[in-house]
């Protein structure tokens, strides 16, 4: 009996989630930058500030119309036209402004007849004009290091003539220890989220031996799903303790208490429970943090959330952070499950909330921050 008990993976204590994320922030370092085409940079984190030369070099017309001096239109109105002593010059969008003009008036703001022109509306200086440097100021970054690239950013970069940028793209190996449908589904979900958030995910076929992977892996991080509990075939925590550094086994988060965090040299190794709800909860709170640190995003990327009101009381056990799926009903949300999150609760929910460890829950009517699922 003694020999058998030595092989059981037991949790001696649950480490607070805040301590785990603090360890991630302290020990996980940003990967080496590389320069890539902007066409492949969506979701990637900038390694250095993105700068561009001033554009345009000279003031341009933003609209088709008449280039003129704004002072000449002061007090002009349809019932009070103002004569223009200098004939306005027709101009098209994108053309440089004439030296003596400071605005572009719409065609219907000027009337011409018998060789004379008059303004029918007051036009202000700068109206209809893109001033020199208006698109990009060489002293102001377009986006800063540590910010993820959106498609809008990349389109603007291309319009400014930028074709390549320096980014950090963490390579993360996702290893489902077993071939069960739940573990494989969780692994595929995480791999998709890694890719969507600017990483490179390497999805392993189920059943690879963790020890072999640790001996040969060159990825920036490894995420393992399954084998963190106390079952007969649960050995991945022991393998991590044997082959590298086991930093934490047992995290004070529900679901996901049996998760573990370790390091193979500087490379983080995250072990997730073999349940979809538990693996997802730990990935959202710890795994994404690891990816953000590898990408050089200080403190982790701010997660988008929407403030909504709880439609009923939500009790929670103090001492444990808790992930709770919620369903939206107009401007309020209803908690659907806690502790174990049924698959149907995940599919019926519109997002999730995080109940902090120091809280014993929320009263009905409390405003909570609802975050989207991957």
Give an overview in words.
It contains eight helices and 25 strands. Helix content is 21%, strand content 27%. The strands form seven sheets. Strands 13-12-14-18-17-15 form a six-stranded mixed β-sheet, sandwiched between helices. Strands 16, 19, 21, 22, 23 and 25 form a six-stranded mixed β-sheet that branches. It has 374 residues and is an alpha+beta fold. The protein has four domains: 156 residues, Molybdenum Cofactor Biosythetic Enzyme, Chain A, CATH 3.40.980.10; 49 residues, Molybdopterin biosynthesis moea protein, domain 2 (Alpha-Beta Complex); 67 residues, no CATH class; 65 residues, MoeA, C-terminal, domain IV (Beta-clip, Beta Barrel), CATH 2.40.340.
The CATH homologous superfamily of the largest domain is termed: MoaB/Mog-like domain
User: Kindly state the mean pLDDT as a whole number?
Assistant: 93
Discrete helix count:
8
CATH architect. name of the largest domain: 3-Layer(aba) Sandwich
Total E-strand runs: 25
Biggest pleated sheet: 6 strands, mixed
Q: What is the domain total for the residues?
A: 4
What is Rg? 29 Å
Shape: elongated
Share of helix, binned: 10-25%
Q: How far do the termini sit from each other?
A: 44 Å
* Strand content range: 25-35%
Assign the CATH class of the largest domain: Alpha Beta
Q: Please state the structural category.
A: alpha+beta
Tags for this model:
Molybdopterin biosynthesis moea protein, domain 2; 4 domains; 374 residues; alpha+beta; disordered N terminus; 21% helix; six-stranded mixed beta sheet; Molybdenum Cofactor Biosythetic Enzyme, Chain A; 25 strands
